[in-house]
Amino acid sequence: MYSAARGGFSAILRQAAVAQRSHLSSANTKKIPRRRGEYLYGVAPCLAALHTGKRQIYNIFLKSAVGTRTSELKSTALSEVRRYAERRRMEIHYVSKETLERMSSKRPHQGIVLDVSPLSCRKMDLGDCRLEKDILSERLPVWLALDGIQDPMNFGAILRAAFFLGADRVITTARNW
Q1: Whole-angstrom distance, CA of residue 149 vs CA of residue 177
Q2: Spatial CB neighbours of 103, under 8 Å, sequence gap ≥ 6
Q3: What does the pLDDT look like over 151-176, one tens digit per residue?
Q4: Inter-CA distances, 120 with 5, 116, 145, 168, Å
């Protein structure tokens, strides 16, 4: 039995907590690169960005693994991110959960944030607004206008539903997610 006079078990716990905090603080004192683009976060959106190649990847930030448990699916995804970084000789920045929460504005980041170039949006041309084809077919056109969609997964679900339901056009603003 541990005695309070010698510190015992509680002293061991305190030492472990101090060691963990010092490890986390050393991970946080490492200079975090300045943001060059916009932050993209969450496992699925980040993997999509890595696979499609439509965005330039400036920096990869992963949660430092001190005392964390990850699901098998998330572990596989994070391994994929590490392989991507190795192939391109990119450094992975391991940061605290708090740093990732700041980067993602406290949105669900799932332990990963990418600093990426913005998606390019096609400017709308007034020629795209012609309705002659729709008027001649005696069918009213269905256009879907989206503004301020914040979650890329919701955006994808909306686009799939629009396609399935036969929407003719989808218009978005540049400020979606």
Answers
A1: 6
A2: 39, 41, 61, 109, 113
A3: 777 888 899 999 999 888 888 887 66
A4: 65, 12, 18, 21
Rounded Cα distance between 170 and 157, Å, is: 13
Question: How is residue 76 written in tokens?
Answer: 């596989």
Domain count, the chain: 2
Residue 39 pairs in a beta bridge with 115
- Distance separating alpha carbons of residues 138 and 133, to the nearest angstrom: 9
- What is the extent of the structural domain holding 139? 126-172
Q: Are residues 61 and 109 in the same domain?
A: yes
Question: Looking at the whole model, is its pTM more than 0.85?
Answer: no
* First-residue to last-residue Cα distance in the chain: 56
16 is a domain residue: no
